[in-house]
Structure formats: structure tokens, C-alpha cells
From TrEMBL:
Lineage: Bacteria, Bacillati, Actinomycetota, Actinomycetes, Micrococcales
GO MF term (any one): oxidoreductase activity, acting on CH-OH group of donors
Cofactors required: FMN
Binding site for glyoxylate: 54, 160, 195, 300, 303
Stored InterPro entries: Aldolase_TIM, Alpha-hydoxy_acid_DH_FMN, FMN-dep_DH, FMN_HAD, FMN_hydac_DH_AS
Active-site annotation: 300
Protein name in the entry: FMN-dependent alpha-hydroxy acid dehydrogenase
Keyword Kinase appears in the UniProt entry: no
Source organism superkingdom: Bacteria
Length: 403
């Protein structure tokens, strides 16, 4: 029989530890979010469905995105024990300059739709944390305003080539004058992908006040109040637009562009050149031969051609083919710091994240983006330590096995 006794106050007192009082509901939500998936859950509750789906969704059956995430989930780490991991160094170089962590913030369109702080919030976090940030041609804050918001951040400008080439030349000149370090040319959008969630939701820029959206406003009043009481949506590269995203892309972008047009690009941009949207080994060789300083293996987050190759699976072959002539980065499907580490071990020099920080932005503005960066950085450090490596340069194919 077990002897029982009434506990003394001196024994109970150490167990009664109240959590610190957090008056801000945003702070409470973000502190409770331990993963990017948690931020995604908060984001879904905080934003209208059409806006969340624009960020969260992909093209057609969304097969490409599911395959990318499935591959990351199913790969196998191979840790090595008894190594000194008391100090973890997550720094790497991107375009020859240091980045505090081996990922950058990818360009995203219509960012102020997700949260009214938009690109300013993202670039300010990038500046504080030493993370490069790429502003999209389809961003909703001007080149000059982004530069002013974070003058010391490493800023890249992402360019889509328009049918009106003079508009592209003007954008490159503005980016150069504003101190942007590099140009990132996205090459996988000759036409818009079939983003069916957007079509079914009637998603438009700016959002139309239909019966459906008015009803949705009652569920997300803070989002609508912020949209309607802050500066009107405007774009980094055009004054206004009234229509769907697909209509905008098809109207502006030039489907006739070829690799020969990189000569035109180089005539207007003499800084580092990143080519984003590479999906085959042959194309990787072609653009590096044409002068790319870095390439991004990417299927646009699954938002263009469904059933496109999973970028991370291409890494070993592309890294071998390029053989150090250009930096090789990867995106699509990255939802954790462990995913980042796996990509590095498979041959990437660095990675880019988009949805991950957008979930943070929707969940809590600038504080949410910072929380996303904190989560990813912490996961990178922990995964490296558990693998038995203390620096990014030690990661290699011996640490991971693809399914």
C-alpha cells in the first residue's frame, strides 16, 4: 500500500510558476507558434480566404507543391556522433557576401495584400537579421520606399521581362540608383499558371467588394480596416491594375523572351545576375554559360507548371554540372530549418524562402516575419548540431539520403 501525505506549501510553491502576462494578442499568438506550420494556422485565421489561398495555393492540382514537401518529409538524415558542436556557425556567403543564415527572403508579389505593413516589414527584418531580401516586380511598395525603409539591408530586385522593354530598363535603372545589389531575373513565367484557388475565389487586385467579400469582412475586420485606412495599394512597377493576377501577368509579361535576350539585360545591368526558375540540368548550364552569377532551382513554388520537377531533387546533378562556376540556390517546399539544411547537404549553396515568411507576415506583420526568421534560424542550428556539424561548409551528401 502506498503511503500518502498532504503536500506542504513549501513543496507546492516551486511548482506554481505563472507564465508572464502578455497583453498583446499578437505577441501571444506569435510566442505560441513554434513552427512555420503554426504560423500558417494563425495566418489562415487572420486573413480573408482569398488572400490566404493566393499565398498558400499553387497551380492546377497543386501536385508540384505537394511533391516538393513530400520529398523533404521523406528524406533521411544521417547524423554523425561525437563531434564538437558547442558552437554552431550558420553564416554562409551569397554572391560573395555574408548572410547570417543560409537562406534569403524570396520575392513575392502583392505583399501588402497579406498585411498592410508589406514589403517594408520584410526588408526591415532582413536588415536586422542579416538576411538578403528580393523585392518583386509585382511588389506593392516602390523600389525607393523599400530602399528607404532599410538602407543597410542587402536588397535585390526581381525582374520579369515585359513586352515593353523600356519599362524593364527603367526598373533596372531605378533599382541601381536606389542601391540594390543584384538583379534576379525570373524565367519561368512566359504565361500565368492556372491558379485555380484564385479563380474560384474571384481574387483580384485590389479586392472587389462583392457579397462574398463583404461577408468575409465580418470574419476578418482587422484586415479590412487596415486595408481601407492605410495607404492605397500600389505597385513597385506600375501605377494601378483592376483585374485578376493571371490577366495582369499575361498582359505585361513577354512570352517571346529567349536566352539571347540576356545580352539586352546585361546592357542595362552590370551588377550580379541571378536567374530564377531553372528546372533542368541543361538549362542550368545554358544560363551559367550566358553569364549568370547564381541560379535558383525553382518551379515557382508549384505556382506555374504543375507536375514540374521537384527542385531539391535536381540539386546533386546540377551542382555537379555547374562545378562551382556559379552559386546554386533552391526554393519550393521549404517549411523548416531542417529543409534548409537538407538542401545544403544535397549541394545547394543557399536557399530562398517565400511562403514561410509570408505566413509570419499574415500572422503578425513585422513581428510575424521576425518570428518566422527566428524559427527557421533556430531549426537550422539545432539540425546542424544533431547532424554533428558546426558550420555550413561541413554539410555534404554524407548527411542526407533522398528517398
Amino acid at each position: 500500500m502506498t503511503d500518502r501525505q498532504i503536500p506542504k506549501w513549501s513543496e507546492l510553491k516551486p511548482l506554481l510558476r505563472a507564465k508572464p502576462l502578455r497583453l498583446s494578442p499578437t505577441d501571444r499568438r506569435l510566442e505560441d507558434a513554434l513552427t512555420i506550420g503554426d504560423l500558417r494556422t494563425v495566418a489562415r485565421k487572420r486573413t480573408p480566404r482569398s488572400v490566404f489561398d493566393y499565398t498558400d495555393g499553387a497551380a492546377e492540382g497543386e501536385i508540384s507543391l505537394r511533391r516538393a514537401r513530400s520529398l523533404f518529409r521523406n528524406l533521411e538524415f544521417r547524423p554523425s556522433i561525437l563531434h564538437d558542436v558547442s558552437g554552431i556557425d550558420t553564416t554562409t556567403t551569397m554572391l560573395g557576401k555574408p548572410s547570417s543564415v543560409p537562406f534569403s527572403f524570396a520575392p513575392t508579389g502583392f505583399t501588402r495584400m497579406m498585411h498592410h505593413e508589406g514589403e517594408r516589414a520584410v526588408v526591415r527584418v532582413a536588415e536586422r537579421r542579416g538576411i538578403p531580401y528580393a523585392l518583386s516586380t509585382m511588389g506593392t511598395t516602390s523600389i525607393e520606399e523599400v530602399a528607404k525603409a532599410a538602407p543597410d539591408a542587402r536588397k535585390w530586385f526581381q525582374l520579369y521581362v515585359w513586352k515593353d522593354r523600356s519599362a524593364g530598363e527603367d526598373l533596372m535603372a531605378r533599382a541601381k540608383a536606389a542601391g540594390f545589389e543584384a538583379l534576379q531575373l525570373t524565367v519561368d513565367v512566359p504565361v500565368a499558371g492556372a491558379r485555380l484557388r484564385d479563380a474560384r475565389n474571384g481574387f483580384s487586385i485590389p479586392p472587389a467588394l462583392t457579397v462574398k467579400t463583404v461577408l468575409d469582412a465580418g470574419m476578418h475586420p482587422a484586415w479590412w480596416i487596415n486595408l481601407l485606412t492605410t495607404e492605397p495599394l500600389k505597385f513597385a512597377s506600375l501605377s494601378t491594375w483592376d483585374g485578376t493576377v493571371a490577366e495582369l501577368l499575361d498582359k505585361l509579361f513577354d512570352p517571346s523572351m529567349t536566352i539571347a535576350d540576356l545580352e539586352w539585360l546585361r546592357a542595362s545591368w552590370d551588377g550580379p545576375l541571378i536567374i530564377k526558375g531553372i528546372q533542368t540540368v541543361d538549362d542550368a548550364r545554358r544560363v551559367v554559360d550566358a553569364g549568370a552569377d547564381a541560379i535558383v532551382l525553382s518551379n515557382h513554388g508549384g505556382r506555374q507548371l504543375d507536375r514540374a520537377p521537384v527542385p531539391v531533387r535536381l540539386l546533386p546533378d546540377v551542382a555537379e554540372a555547374i562545378d562551382g562556376r556559379a552559386e546554386v540556390w533552391v526554393d519550393t517546399g521549404i517549411m523548416s530549418g531542417a529543409d534548409v539544411v537538407a538542401a545544403l547537404a544535397l549541394g545547394a549553396d543557399a536557399t530562398m524562402v517565400g511562403r514561410a515568411y509570408l505566413y509570419g507576415l499574415m500572422a503578425g506583420g513585422e513581428r510575424g516575419v521576425d518570428r518566422a526568421a527566428e524559427i527557421l534560424s533556430r531549426e537550422v542550428r539545432r539540425t546542424m548540431a544533431l547532424l554533428g556539424v558546426s558550420s555550413v561548409s561541413e554539410l555534404g551528401p554524407q548527411h542526407v539520403r533522398l528517398p
